[in-house]
Structures are given as C-alpha cells and as structure tokens.
C-alpha cells in the first residue's frame, strides 16, 4: 500500500535542510511527500517566493539522487493563511511545477471556479484537492479535473465529534445512549485480524 507523507515544510527552512530531510524521508520507502510554503509566522505566513521555489528544487534533488520515484507535491498554503489570492496561488504552483513538483496542491480552495481555474492553469500536472471543505463528491471533483484528493484531518475530526457527543451526554445528562452509535466491536476486530 503506497503511503504519502505529509512532510510539512520539510522540517527545515533552508533548502539544504529540506534536501537532507527529504533524503532521509525517501529512505523509509514512502511513495510520496509534500513540501509546504508556509512559515508558521502569522506576520509573514509564506516563504519569500524564490526561497519557496528553492525548497521545492531541493526536495526534487533529494528524490532524484535516490532514484526512489517518490512523488513530490508542491503546496501553496496561501488560502489557509488568509491570503485568498488566486493569482498568487497559480503563480506559485506554476513555479513549483517548473521546480520539479509532480503534483500541485492549494489546500483551502473551495469553489468550483477556484478549483477549475487552478486545474487549467497548471495542466498537465495533477492537482490535489482537500475535498472536505469543497463539499464536492468524488465525481464532481473528477469532473473539474482534480486527479488526487486528500481528506486532511477530517476523519480524525469526525471521530472526535462522536467522542465529544458521547462525553457531553455522559457529563451533562448522566446517560449513555450515544454509546449505542459506536462502530460494532466485532467488525473492528475483523479489520485488525
């Protein structure tokens, strides 16, 4: 089963550090990894454009040096950091493509127009979509040209929603009826055999 690593920002700022960390990462046997352009700093949320591109190039070089065939996804995090500038996102994704990204990703885009505009702008490279926020079905995303989807933390948040419903009922009402809505233990046991 191929495993993709959410490699965040490469666990380094400088391209040399990204190179070293990606080189270590591909040795694990992962099938793919992504490199983000966010800094984590609300005052300056995205790396300067040329540094962001150099970081993608460094990741590409590390993958190529290993001949691993690991899929490199270039991520523009602008929408997640409140910079809903489609031109900026397309400029960066195009630059990441030219720097060696195999797949492009702009988490936070939601509308059909945003999605199709990005897909067309970076064609023929595939676009990854964070599906939950879009409200689209798999078929609708496919029809827009999306070729890869992510659910991000949605599965974990859904699980936590169930946990919180049960905990709230227990704490506030002293009852346990929500526990009956859990996934059957026998089915879970079958999955882990």
In short:
The protein has 8 helices and 6 strands.
Jot down its keywords.
193 residues, 8 helices, 11% strand, alpha/beta, 6-stranded parallel beta sheet
Please write out the topology.
Layout: E1 4-5, H1 15-26, E2 32-36, H2 49-66, E3 71-75, H3 86-98, E4 103-105, H4 112-122, E5 127-130, H5 131-134, H6 138-143, E6 148-150, H7 154-173, H8 185-191
Parallel strand pairs: 1-2, 2-3, 3-4, 4-5, 5-6
Helix pairs in contact: 1-2, 3-4
Task: Give a description of the structure.
There is one protein chain. The longest helix has 20 residues, at 154-173. The chain contains eight helices and six strands; from the N terminus they run E-H-E-H-E-H-E-H-E-H-H-E-H-H. With 193 residues, the protein is α/β, with parallel strands linked by helices. The mean pLDDT is 95. A six-stranded parallel β-sheet has the order 1-2-3-4-5-6. Helix 3 runs parallel beside helix 4 (112-122).
